Amino acid sequence: MNLGSKKKESPDVNLTPLIDVVFLLLIFFMVSTTFKKDTAIKVDLPEASSKQIKQKKKAFEIVVDAKGRYFLNNKEQLVNQKIKTMMQILSKNLGKDSKKPLIIRADSNAPHGAVVLIMDAARQLGIVNLSIATTPSKAKE
């Protein structure tokens, strides 16, 4: 019996099956993941054009200046930034006609909340024709 020094071989670890499993898991999670974008307010943004669109009905226009003040027919309206007050103003001026167009003409430096207040009040009143007035850009693309 030879009990001499026998060289011990170092164990060899094969990583190929481990890499295969990791790639399969990666592919599984990439395929099974869904990317869903939910928004609370659905907005149909208008397309910009050089032509003005003729409206069939006379539109109701509300103006918001840079300080967030509201103007109807060039008269300042005192609105306390509450949705009920804006709903009362809109329903008083638009009446029961929810198809009458509403145009929001807001200054580019107007507070975002002032415009959103009008949009939210219009949505709650069932106003379906809502536009935001813009000026045509002078830069040619």
Quick synopsis:
With 141 residues, the chain is of the alpha/beta class. Helices cover 30% and strands 13% of the residues. It has a domain at 65-132: Nucleotidyltransferase, domain 5.
How does this structure look, described?
There is one protein chain. The protein is of the alpha/beta class. The chain has a domain at 65-132: Nucleotidyltransferase, domain 5, CATH 3.30.420. Helix content is 30%, strand content 13%. The chain is built from three helices and five strands; from the N terminus they run αβββαβαβ. It has helices spanning 16-32, 83-94, 112-125; strands spanning 60-64, 70-72, 75-77, 102-106, 130-132. The chain has a five-stranded mixed sheet, with helices on one face. Helix 2 packs across helix 3. It starts with 15 loop residues before the first helix and ends in a 9-residue tail after the last strand.
Question: What is the topology?
Answer:
Layout: H1 16-32, E1 60-64, E2 70-72, E3 75-77, H2 83-94, E4 102-106, H3 112-125, E5 130-132
Helix pairs in contact: 2-3
Task: Please name the defining characteristics of this protein.
five-stranded mixed beta sheet; rod-shaped; Nucleotidyltransferase, domain 5; alpha/beta; 30% helix; 141 residues
